[in-house]
Design a protein that fits this description.
Keywords: Hydrolase, Membrane, Protease, Transmembrane, Transmembrane helix. By secondary structure, the chain is of the alpha+beta class. It folds into 2 domains: about 70 residues, no CATH class; about 60 residues, OB fold (Dihydrolipoamide Acetyltransferase, E2P), CATH 2.40.50.140. It contains 4 helices and 5 strands; from the N terminus they run αααβββββα. The longest helix has 22 residues. The model has no long low-confidence stretch (mean pLDDT about 85).
Length: about 140
């Protein structure tokens, strides 16, 4: 029993659109589903399966690329270079302590070769490794200027 191409494209389009609800793929499945629904309409006029598949591929690729251009770029929040923080606990070389950074308490460790920093001292955040900030003493930075 052969399936009517129009019904095939309708079912494929609906399944792809539904899959986007359960397995989010940044609208890739949704665009492929919409393309299949368009091809379902075209299949009433163009009976050639090869052309239908080619049209579906072109529409899918074109709509995915086009959608990426219209959606805003998502950027991962990063720590800016050289921002200030304040130590909450003493930070010893080779160990971690706590700093107050942008209103939140963060785990922090010293840059290699740095001497201990007492509590309630200003430090400069120079990087991040996971949830741990890498800091240097503000005094050290001012002494080198």
């Amino acid at each position: 029993m052969l399936v009517n191409p129009t019904i095939f494209w309708l079912v494929a389009g609906l399944l792809l659109c539904l899959m986007e609800l359960f397995v989010p793929t940044a609208f890739v499945e949704l665009m492929m589903g919409f393309s299949a629904l368009i091809v379902a309409g075209v299949s009433l006029i163009v009976p050639y399966a090869n052309l239908q598949v080619l049209l579906w591929m072109i529409l899918s690729l074109g709509s995915i690329v086009g959608l990426r251009r219209w959606l805003p770029n998502r950027r991962v929040a990063t720590i800016e270079d050289a921002q200030e923080a304040e130590t909450l606990t003493e930070i010893l070389p080779g160990q971690t302590g706590r700093v107050l950074y942008e209103g939140n308490s963060w785990r922090a460790r010293l840059e290699a070769g740095e001497m201990a920093i007492a509590p309630h001292q200003r430090v400069i955040v120079i990087g991040r490794e996971g949830n741990t900030l890498i800091v240097i003493s503000e005094k050290l930075l001012n002494a080198s200027e």
